[in-house]
Fold this protein.
Amino acid sequence: MMLVDDRVWALFKGHWQHTLTYWSVFFSFGLCIAFLGPTILDLRCQTQSTLQQITWVFFAQQLFLMLGSALGGLFKKTLRCSLSALFVSSLVISVVFAIIPLCHHVLMLAVAMAISGTAMGVIDTIANLQLVKLYQKDSAIFLQVLHFFIGLGALVSPLVADPFLSEGSCVLGGNMTANSSTDLHHLRSYLAGKGTTPLHNVSHHYHLHTEGIITTNVSYAFWIMALINLPVPVAVYVLMYRERLFPCSNHSPRLLDKEKNSQKNQQDHNIQGHGGLFGCCNYADVKDRPASYFLLYILAGAVLFITDGIIGSYTGFIYTYAVSPPLSLPHKTAGCLTSVFWASVTAGRLASIYLSYRYTQQRLISVSLAGMMVVQCLLLILYSSPVFLFMGTCVLGLFISSVFPCMVALTEDMVNYKGCATTVLVTSAGTGEMVLQLLTGQLIHSKGSYSFMLVGMISSCIGFTVFLGLIYIQHLHRSSQAATSKEIAMTEKPSSE
């Protein structure tokens, strides 16, 4: 039995080069997401900074990723703008990888991470929007593959970095002893998710020196990742060349010529909504919209605000939760939890490629959110079971994996592919990942590790409730549209007679 029917396969063959290019740039996205955590201690040595100073690098990347997502829609007006932005962004990622070994001050490193975060945000918005624009009602399958490539990049990045990570202290002084590899493994795992959470007195527990001889070899890992990523901007450049999108070309773009008769009106209509996050608020375009139209955006964004926030907080603090009482797992065992979670997310997105073809986005999201709620509740109840912590982490990753791509496809369908939904959703997801992670970190510090699971369960329940509200508003919106269309038809009929 074929996984997809002939129609979907024909759609892919008609846009295969565009689709593969968008998938490849999301591989760059995945590389950037995962490399900072494992290498953070070696980067601390390279910049000779304190732990508190180096963690601001995480914050810089997260903040500018959110800003890049909001600004990414500015490049959606034409295919030339979109591919140009993708080319520059993917090339910037390779350049940032190459120059990180040259950043010997934490401020320089933070600036580099801010630039890479902006490029990641632009890639996130553009790739999602372009796939939705190409495939519209069939976009869910291709969006699942797109987000699978994030997981693939996130798996490759730590594997490349691992052989070059320091086993002992990478800053050695005259009379200073190296930290044990066990302590460094614990600290590296602890820091892996602290993107927006300040460290509280960590330096008092780990005496890491800032002055001395630097012995790290992590530079080679970044140069290797720069080379691995280099084919991605090359692929975007080749696509631009094939579509004749360079300013010096005297020919019209081939893709637009090929689809001129069938899609010209649809493209012109979509362009109105492709002006970035702030362009979506054009008064002339929204003044006659019903309240349900705006609620669709708000509720869909809220769902992804919560679910991506859960992903960020879970990967950021599951290690801290596992090594704290009552579990008190060994450091190496607890360090596997983040890898287990990301592996299950990647596997879930791979499985969702087929599930998106067999089932509607609404059903997949409903099952995913309900499953998340049940798993988080069981994790809260069985908080003292190490075995169930691993099982629950795996199942949670499988359930949460498909929410983002399915929600993008569903929301764009609800608003008839105006183009703004993707920009709003991507920005909401990035904001949620940063805000919920910050909130969880503060609660763990003030109330204890048990609050980690409590926040996760409450967030899952809120997300499921908001989604039910979204479905109800969708019903009202469609009823309102049908009534308006009927009224217009009845008004035009006498005039035509």
